[in-house]
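Query structure, 375 tokens:
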């Protein structure tokens, strides 16, 4: 078959990868010269630890696919580094203990570590904490270089074409297939069209699928200059227990009741995630904002909070912050939906809304769509 995939982010590229792997031909259109949305404005984390039990199997499958991809495409920067979520209070420790004893702990690779064990695993963590929940299945990729590396690998098949700086203007279903007309007047004929618009819910997306059950979420992040030592795992703080459904339970309810976040963390719905990039710098975040219109500028208070928490856990000053940014991603409003798939016409599908799980679940979602469409 010949597929046209609209959208050059992680979801569109994952669908292209799945189609190429099954022997099909793919033409992919991206309106920017390179993906500039949530695909590159993230941690590059393949995050198993906090995923809900109902999506754990798909998450583990995606983790397996990322490792397979990383073995074939070195440029994606896959590394099975794992993570440690650090508990700083008794209430957070209770959540970590429950997670380590939970029914899915073995599948997730959970182990509860004493402070000395944490430092043995990740010597950079010389700060203050009571314990660390280690997740051996968590991993990371380099979000800013992964997609170009994947495209180069697919292009070598002879069955993949990428059109940068090309916006799809219309999609015409022909009954036996479809035609995508781009902003340069070119017509791209296809047996099947998959539109992966990311957070662009208006324009062509609305024309094809109407109002989708999705919302946009804004976040703020930052990156430091290289740290002069390795951070051998990704790290998270206890506030992440509040946001990831895999930790839901009485202990999290008690955490919410007994311990309030700082005013800044509560206002911006914050958690700390931190991962070291291959160049040595730390990517640190993040915040959550759900009510539009979003501001065009960034707030300084969250960055001060993130810096304070990270320095407390590391027991040292951070390197200088060299970049700050905001990003917007698309999230399905149904909490049980991993992604929103809408059949816009006989041979046209719209796929969006993985929330903050796009990098984690991308390969598995592409594979899942391929299965559902009989590719």
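Result returned for the query:
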């Amino acid at each position: 078959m010949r597929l046209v995939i609209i959208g050059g982010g992680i979801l569109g590229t994952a669908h292209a990868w799945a189609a190429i792997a099954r022997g099909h031909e793919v033409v992919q259109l991206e309106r920017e010269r390179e993906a500039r949305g949530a695909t590159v404005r993230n941690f590059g984390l393949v995050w198993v630890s906090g995923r809900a039990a109902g999506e754990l199997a798909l998450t583990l499958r995606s983790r397996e696919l990322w490792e397979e991809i990383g073995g074939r495409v070195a440029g994606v920067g896959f590394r099975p580094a794992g993570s440690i979520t650090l508990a700083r209070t008794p209430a957070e420790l209770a959540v970590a203990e429950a997670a380590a004893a939970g029914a899915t702990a073995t599948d997730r690779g959970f182990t509860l570590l004493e402070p000395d064990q944490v430092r043995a695993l990740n010597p950079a963590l010389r700060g203050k904490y009571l314990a660390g929940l280690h997740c051996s299945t968590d991993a990371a990729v380099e979000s800013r270089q992964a997609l170009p590396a994947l495209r180069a690998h697919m292009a070598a098949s002879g069955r993949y074409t990428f059109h940068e700086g090309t916006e799809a203007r219309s999609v015409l279903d022909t009954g036996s297939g479809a035609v995508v007309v781009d902003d340069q007047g070119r017509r791209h004929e296809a047996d099947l069209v998959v539109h992966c618009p990311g957070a662009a819910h208006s324009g062509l997306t609305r024309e094809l699928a109407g109002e989708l059950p999705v919302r946009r979420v804004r976040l703020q992040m930052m990156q430091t200059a290289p740290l002069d030592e390795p951070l051998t795992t990704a790290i998270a703080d206890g506030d992440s227990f509040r946001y990831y459904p895999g930790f839901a339970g009485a202990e999290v309810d008690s955490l919410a009741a007994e311990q309030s976040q700082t005013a800044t963390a509560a206002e911006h719905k914050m958690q700390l995630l931190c991962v070291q990039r291959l160049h040595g710098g730390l990517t640190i975040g993040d915040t959550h904002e759900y009510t539009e219109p979003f501001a065009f500028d960034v707030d300084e208070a969250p960055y001060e909070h993130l810096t304070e928490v990270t320095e407390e856990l590391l027991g040292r000053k951070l390197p200088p912050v060299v970049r700050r940014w905001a990003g917007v991603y698309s999230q399905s409003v149904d909490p049980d939906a991993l992604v929103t798939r809408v059949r816009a016409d006989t041979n046209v599908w719209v796929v969006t809304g993985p929330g903050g799980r796009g990098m984690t679940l991308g390969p598995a979602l592409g594979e899942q769509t391929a299965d559902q469409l009989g590719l």
